[in-house]
Amino acid sequence: MRALLVVALLAASAHAEPIAIVGAKIHVKPGQTIENGTLVIDRGKVTSVGPGSRAPAGAKAIDGTGKVITAGLIDGISGVGLVGIDLEPQVVDGRFGATDTVHSDPVHASYQARNGFDPRDVNVAITRAGGLTTVIAAPAGGLVSGQSAAFALDGGADPVRTSVAMHVTLGPEGAGAAGGSRGKSLEILRELLDDARIFGKDRKDYEKNAKRRMIADRRDLEALQPVLARTLPMVVAAESEADIRAALRLAKELDIRIAISGGAEAWRVAKELAAAKVPVMLDPTANLPVDLAASEVSDEAAAILNKAGVQVVITTLGASWGARVLRQLAGNAVARGLPWDKALAAITSIPASLFGLTGRGTLERGAVADVVLWSGDPLELTTTVDTVIIEGVVQSLENHQTKLLQRYRRISPLPQ
Amino acid sequence: MQRVVACVLWIAACGGTTTTSYPERPTEDPKLDVAAPWIDPDSFWIRGKPARQRALSDALTDPTAPIIAIRGATILTAAGKRFDNGTIVLERGAITYVGADKEPPKNATVIDGKGKFVTPGIIDSHSHMGVYPAPSAKAHGDGNEAVAPVTAYARAEYGYWPQDPQLSRALAGGVTTALILPGSANLIGGRGFTVSLRPGARTAAEAGFPGAPSTVKMACGENPKRVHAEKGGLQTRMAEYAAFRTAFAEAQAYTAKKAAYDNAWTVWQMKRKRAEQIESRRDDAKKIAGETAPEPVPVDLKLETLSGVLRGEVLVQVHCYRADEMAQMIQIADEMGFRIRSFHHALEAYKIRDLLAKNNIAVNTWADWFGFKLEAYDGIPENAALLTQLNVRTTIHSDSAIGVQRLNQEAAKAQTAGNKAGIKIDDDTALRWITANPARVLGIDAVTGTLQEGKRADVVMWSGSPMSVYTRAEVVIVGGHVSYEKTKGMRASDFELAEGKAP
Question: Residue B354 is nearest to which of A88, A380, A411, comparing CB atoms?
């Protein structure tokens, strides 16, 4: 069934006529904007982008006059597809408690969001209508939460890329998964990655039971191999300066690639993060003291980090129903000193490159045609979504909410 | 026939005897022959000093407040008027002039408003700042007295921590007034607390909005049944609505009992006075036997709150999501004899907007929240616009220490959703969602919520249109005092003071 759907979509994009959005302001990539340009899409790709307002012959033209084109927005840490309704376990996946009830350990490294993602989640269509075209569906909870996957929000069941990152949680939550000690949670991580390395060196010994006891299960150890090989980044949720510094030490010691998420106090470690080339994934509106250990939060964190040379990803940090506020978050970062181009990059090209989503996040010739046509400045509150295109296909903007509006535009009370 | 009825009513008298069921007082006892004293129990009661009651009009005068004028700004009054290049003058805590450009008083501190926007201070009709502070430490969390479904005796004011770091951030977002509510774990969680976000308030009393009417927080639906199912209190909506009725039936009886006592007390005092008059005219100086004073009804703080609701003195704020549940609450209010001031969250309000309009019940909602639980599944971004279209008084509230910092942006989003759906929402209307309308919900609209002469000097000067994501509050004036200036930054709460930080 899913295969059929994919085939059908592929067929649709392959046979559809080219699309040309004409006369719009086009944000091609960070630092490259065309004031009055035309974007041509064919067979799922951007085939041309340049100044002028004439559609090529045979292309279906969409008038973009007075409008703005960007690459489809990407939420770097999302709950879309995993969390349908927060309080209903039937539609919640990849949200772990302190310890796994199956193995009673805090390590869920083998978990793949790829398997938990529900393409029929109500939030998929609603988020798409808000101008997001890709989400990184990411697990959370426990010490090691598992692997995230990138999904296009076109209703398809197959990920764009999997896995894209391994997710780890430090701070009080990670400590809670390690008997209440933050220091201990770091040691469990070290032990886990050591074990994974030993496991990776000789699986035969492991299968013969000739190895010492391992801290995690076979599938978890297997899942950590790409982290050790530096092909899979580890996203470390850490808020306090102490935890962020601990994560930096761990990454250096074990030679793994990390990114910090949350990062309430990351701005205090900006220099070190820049030197270690560690990106920070944050919500720029999260300006409250998170907990007693991470109480020094800055309104200007995104700007400070960016200025110090840290790559900043702006993300909802796991929202599902709230995913469409992503552009508002970026706008608020601009209001607090982040250059506009960087803010757009933080919700398009930067998460795309961080998670290896080749061809996404920009609109250069040859890019995957994930495109949004906006009524104006995409970060502005008064702006609305005009057209959403994913992999070259114009998407429906209908969803649960638009249907409700349609039904209740007029109300007809029943006689009592 | 009459005899039969009398027998039914006076069972004791139908036994064939003539004695009453009450024993006669043995008058031959010399000790008892002395007239019983008409002792006023009031004179034995130990009474403390009642809490200071302030009048709402106190919100309008503050002799310590300076004279301030903002000149050259675009003024949005939230009262239907817009003045480009306008002037507003604030004197001693009140607005004394708002309108076209005018020479300000000589002794005024003049703020240059060129290129800026001026609006009323933002009012959040639903906040838990102070009772659920940041950081959310173990020691904090005074917002839900989740020990029983009805804790109407609890008060947000008692749990309010004036050093909550959230408060200064809300102020920096242009918020001057907020209704601090108990959480929604309980059906009737307790009384709300209306605060004026004056920086430096050390106590709840210093934070309280002068003379604001009392409010009570109620909640229906998922939260109370989820919380109390574990505690054995109740576990279904069936029991929730029964429990509301029970609580108010109890309050009705309590109210009646107290009225009966007040009445008996008045009669008793009249009798005593009359006895004194008769005694003074008698030659033999003989006293008239006194009567025992009526027994007072013990004060029940839970029922005092509910009784206040029945009298219409306590404004009812109901957390409710689903249309059918709001209808249930309206039914209960009708039956038990009280009015609902407003529904909060109310994501399905648009489905019954005719009913809400008819009952004159306000709605506080979000711009785009939905789906975090099943009862929130049908929220739509056009909710506020659809309600406004039918003249339901609507507000955009926060219920969030993050959201409260940008209620102007939330209003802009709801406005945009309405306009996109073809429901015309102009800037004044959208601004009213976060100023005049919440003032009405809180019962303080007579003194704040709009920029009009005679209103309280709660004013924000913005860097640009408040409907833009890039706009920041630059000057926030609370009760006539400049309370936040962007150039100077936020005043850190005591908790946040540390080395190397701005004071």
Answer: A411
With b meaning 16 or more CB within 10 Å and e meaning fewer, what string describes B462-496? bbebbbbbbbbbbbbbbbbbbbbbeeeebbebebb
Q: Answer whether A285 sits within 8 Å of B405, measured CB to CB.
A: yes
Give dist(CA A178, CA B348) in Å, integer: 42
pLDDT tens digits, one per residue of B161-219: 999 999 999 999 999 999 999 999 999 999 999 999 999 999 999 999 999 999 999 99
Specify the DSSP class assigned to residue A111. Answer: -
Reduce the DSSP state of residue A154 to 3 states and report it: coil
The complex's ipTM works out to: 0.94
Residue type, A397: L
State the helix-helix crossing angle for A241-254 and A182-201, rounded to 10 degrees.
20
Q: What tokens were used for B269?
A: 């005092």
Is the predicted pLDDT of residue B488 greater than 70, yes or no? yes
Residues B21-60 pLDDT 10s: 555 555 555 555 555 767 777 777 777 888 888 999 999 9
Check residue A356 and give left, alpha or beta (phi > 0: left; psi -120 to 50: alpha).
left
In chain B the first and final C-alpha atoms are separated, in Å, by 87
Interface of B with A in 390-419 (CB under 8 A): 401-402, 405-406, 409, 412-413, 415-416
Q: Determine the Cα–Cα distance for residues B322 and B331; give it in Å rounded to an integer.
A: 14
Instruction: Tell me the pLDDT band of B402, cut-offs 50, 70 and 90.
Output: very high
Residue B446 has which token pair?
């007579």
| pLDDT for res B284 | 84
Mutate to test the interface with B, among A122, A132, A288 (most CBs of B within 10 A): A288
On chain B, the residues whose CB falls within 8 A of the CB of A294 are 135
Question: Can you give the pLDDT at residue B12?
Answer: 37
Nearest CA in chain B to A294: B135
How near does any CA of chain B get to the CA of A384, in Å?
8
- Answer whether A413 sits within 8 Å of B137, measured CB to CB: no
CA of B108 vs chain A CAs: smallest distance (Å):
31
Q: How many CB atoms are closer than 10 A to CB A376?
A: 14
- In chain B, what residues touch A335 (CB-CB under 8 Å)? 469-472
Q: Which among B373, B380, B406 has the least Cβ separation from residue A401?
A: B380
pTM, entire model: 0.93
Cα B285 to Cα A392, B279, B282, B288, B290: the distances in Å are 109, 6, 6, 9, 15
Tokens of A113: 């969001």
CA B456 – CA B91 distance, rounded (Å)? 10
